[in-house]
Amino acid sequence: MKMRHALSSALLSASFATAQLPDGAAISLSHGTAANSSRVTITDPGNHVWTLQSSPNLDDWTDVQSYKVHNGRLDTTVAHASSTTQLFYRTIYSAALQGTITSTTASALVLPATPYDYDNPALPPAFAVNPIAGQDNMPAGNVTTDAGAKLGRILFYDKRLSLNQTVSCSSCHQQANGFSDPDRFSRGFEGGRTDRNSMGLSNARWYQRESFFWDERSATLEIQVLQPIQNPVEMGMTLPALEARLGAEPFYTDLFNQVFGSPAVTSDRIARALAQFVRSIISVSSRYDAARAANFAIGAGWSNQEEQGRQLFNAPGSCSACHGTDNFVPGPNIFNNGLEFPYVDLGRGGVTGNAADNGKFKVGSLRNIALTAPYMHDGRFATLEQVVDFYSNQVVDNPNLSPPLRLPPQQGGGVRRPNFTAQQRAALVAFMRSLTDPSLATDPKYSDPFNYGN
């Protein structure tokens, strides 16, 4: 055994004992914040069993407690009896310990006694009628249920879905950032970068075209959720390997049995559960929603500036032409918004091979837009102010530029350039910020459910 990282005080000394550590594992042991306590921190992508031991003399060691890492990390504090003599602590990994503790539903996960409500969300009345009702892409064969979305939530945060068990879906779609990535391009399981920015997931259920990814290459959400798992940059797994890995975990066979009626872990079931969770990520508690319920009356909940921004946003030929309804998404169309020409990224055209689709990209919901910077498919804009400036006077003319961004033929058909004043620019930004629902970023029903110790 090799001793390292020794810590000492009048009453306590801590050290590590390590044999051959698993790949990617790291351990630290330090004094806890409370008296007579030790803090154990383990990073371990392989989710192994570890044991904390104590000794008065570095020769005679006694097991204090064994731990199972459930999702790559453990951080816990252990209280120990006070002593007038110096004590030593070490954390041990050995092959013989493995299998002594398993990840069960009770031990691996922190779930509420009363299940979260995913299948019956409280929605504004406008969501029950057209046009929003017609935008709902939930298929009859995969209606969201409480149990299915719960399983999807666990899968969404589980690093087992990547080859080396270091990243999860949530690594690129972070709750605090509106389920997007604050980095311009996301980092994959081996450190490589994606070639597009991670789109926010708020209200993905209401996208009439049903297709997903910026270039809409996945016809449904059920197809989309499996693609990052198999992507060689993002997660690097194969579906058979994923099925085998998850099927070996007792808590997964239990959960799959609860949702689907048998313990079999299949890629189809994984896709259905993940899609249910993503569709359950619903934002309807923003300042905008409160103002709509009050008919946009100016007062404590709605400002003159926000109302000016709303009027500009909804003006003919303005933002709402592509970001319509209270979900701020398109109807049946996909758009070219004039980001560049010649095209660096063909977007939808790269999938269809149709030149008329070049430069066209999926239009995501503006819900929680203040949380999802940077903006556009390539994350080129860091702020909402830059986005407004772009639409004000920087749109690039090209053969596929969408009609809302052009003047009518009787006005020459050129690029529409509103040239917003500083006041209008600030009003539009204020309005878009009103679409942010701060509760979504902290709601526990959408948070990481794994047990990481403390």
Describe this structure in words.
- With 454 residues, the chain is an alpha+beta fold.
- The protein folds into three domains: 2-101, Immunoglobulin-like (Sandwich), CATH 2.60.40; 106-282 and 442-446, Cytochrome Bc1 Complex, Chain D, domain 2; 287-433, Cytochrome Bc1 Complex, Chain D, domain 2, CATH 1.10.760.10.
- The chain contains 13 helices and eight strands.
- The protein has helices at residues 105-108, 146-157, 169-172, 221-224, 227-230, 239-247, 250-260, 267-280, 287-293, 304-313, 349-352, 384-393, 422-433, and strands at 2-8, 12-18, 26-31, 37-43, 49-55, 62-68, 73-79, 87-92.
- A five-stranded mixed β-sheet has the order 1-2-8-5-6, with no helix packed on it. The protein has a three-stranded antiparallel β-sheet with strand order 3-4-7, with no helix packed on it.
- A hairpin with a 3-residue loop joins strand 1 and strand 2 (12-18).
- Helix 2 packs across helix 8 (267-280), helix 10 (304-313) packs across helix 13 (422-433) and helix 12 crosses helix 13 (422-433).
- The longest helix has 14 residues, at 267-280.
- It is elongated.
- Residues 1-18 have low confidence and may be disordered.
